[in-house]
């Protein structure tokens, strides 16, 4: 444990500071979320100035306008973290079975504590696994959701193919992610806040590395149009984007095409 803990980049305060260029990147992401799991929700509400309470429900309204009518029976919430989106989805589709999957045990433990009394619990299951090799059969889900996870994948194209593989044809992949604001003026204000104030706030709570990594992770994410192209390459046949809060976040909606995608990994 001590030897493993010693690897990976760290900030001055000792907190994990993942470096995408390093082979240990995915493990370092896990260490980072283990480090911030306890304070994750509180920090999220403060850093987003409460907007995160709106973004997730709004993404589900976007979904309702996008998808063809029909039952939603099985849902996967990928990178579920402390479980907020998984619970909202279970509430939104009251006949569905929802699986929340995450590769960071500490985040899943937090999810279980936070939502242990939720009415939706009998239909909601949390489990550990990676989005780069989903532990599910082909076409197992009607809907796959993920919020604020994409930026953390070592191999984005592989993650998209995996999401496509576990969706039935016609199923929907919903991604909610931080994106570049659409207006150049607002973009400058946003970056002053996101690149400087948020890391400063992170350092103040002993998490300099994670909240310095946050703006870096946005820079590593392809722009909206390229992300949409990547979704088509992964086997989605209809993709739409819905910017929220002047484009600070975007809901990406992608319908699974009839085949399993060019690069899918059937097993
Ligand atoms: C920023 S949090 C978002 C959590 C939650 N979706 C939300 O809306 O608050 C990102 C989550 O994705 C998880 N994650 C990152 N990479 C992952 C991967 N390759 N496989 C599974 N989970 C992953 C992290 O452990 C973390 O809990």
Plain-language structure description:
The chain is α/β, with parallel strands linked by helices and 267 residues long. It has a domain at 47-181 and 220-256: Rossmann fold (3-Layer(aba) Sandwich). It has helices at residues 2-6, 25-36, 40-47, 52-66, 84-92, 105-115, 156-165, 184-204, 208-220, 224-233; strands at 74-78, 97-102, 124-128, 141-147, 167-178, 236-244, 249-256. A 7-stranded mixed beta sheet has the order 3-2-1-4-5-7-6, sandwiched between helices. The longest helix is centred in the last third of the chain and has 21 residues, at 184-204. The two termini are 33 Å apart. Bound molecules: S-adenosylmethionine.
CATH class of the domain at 47-181 and 220-256 reads: Alpha Beta
Please give the alpha-carbon distance between the first and last residues: 33 Å
Radius of gyration: 18 Å
Please state the average pLDDT score.
Answer: 93
CATH topology name of the domain at 47-181 and 220-256: Rossmann fold
Q: What would you give as the CATH superfamily of the domain at 47-181 and 220-256?
A: Vaccinia Virus protein VP39
User: What overall form do the CA principal axes indicate?
Assistant: globular
Q: How much helical structure, as a percent, in the residues? A: 40-55%
Write the H/E string, N to C: HHHHEHEHEEHEHHHEE
Tally of individual helices: 10
Q: What is the number of E strands? A: 7
Summarize this, please?
This protein has helices spanning 2-6, 25-36, 40-47, 52-66, 84-92, 105-115, 156-165, 184-204, 208-220, 224-233; strands at 74-78, 97-102, 124-128, 141-147, 167-178, 236-244, 249-256. By secondary structure, the chain is an alpha/beta fold.
């Amino acid at each position: 444990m001590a030897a493993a803990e010693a690897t990976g980049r760290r900030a001055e305060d000792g907190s994990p500071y993942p470096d995408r260029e390093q082979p240990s990147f995915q493990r370092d992401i896990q260490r980072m979320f283990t480090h911030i799991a306890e304070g994750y929700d509180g920090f999220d509400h403060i850093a987003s100035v409460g907007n995160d309470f709106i973004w997730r429900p709004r993404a589900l309204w976007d979904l309702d306008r996008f998808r063809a009518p029909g039952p939603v029976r099985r849902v996967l919430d990928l990178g579920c973290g402390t479980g907020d989106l998984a619970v909202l989805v279970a509430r939104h589709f009251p006949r569905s079975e929802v699986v929340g999957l995450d590769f960071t045990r500490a985040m899943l433990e937090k999810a279980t504590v936070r939502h242990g009394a939720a009415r939706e619990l009998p239909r909601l299951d949390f489990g550990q696994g990676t989005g780069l090799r989903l532990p599910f059969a082909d076409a197992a889900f009607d809907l796959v959701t993920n919020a604020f996870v994409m930026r953390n994948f070592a191999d984005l194209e592989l993650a998209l193919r995996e999401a496509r593989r576990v969706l039935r044809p016609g199923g929907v992949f919903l991604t909610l992610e931080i994106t570049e604001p659409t207006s150049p003026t607002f973009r400058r204000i946003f970056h002053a806040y996101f690149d400087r104030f948020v890391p400063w706030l992170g350092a103040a709570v002993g998490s300099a590395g994670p909240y310095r990594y946050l703006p870096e992770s946005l820079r590593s994410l392809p722009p909206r149009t390229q992300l949409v192209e990547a979704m088509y390459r992964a086997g989605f046949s209809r993709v739409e984007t819905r910017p929220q809060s002047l484009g600070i976040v975007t809901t990406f909606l992608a319908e699974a095409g009839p085949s399993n995608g060019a690069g899918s990994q059937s097993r």
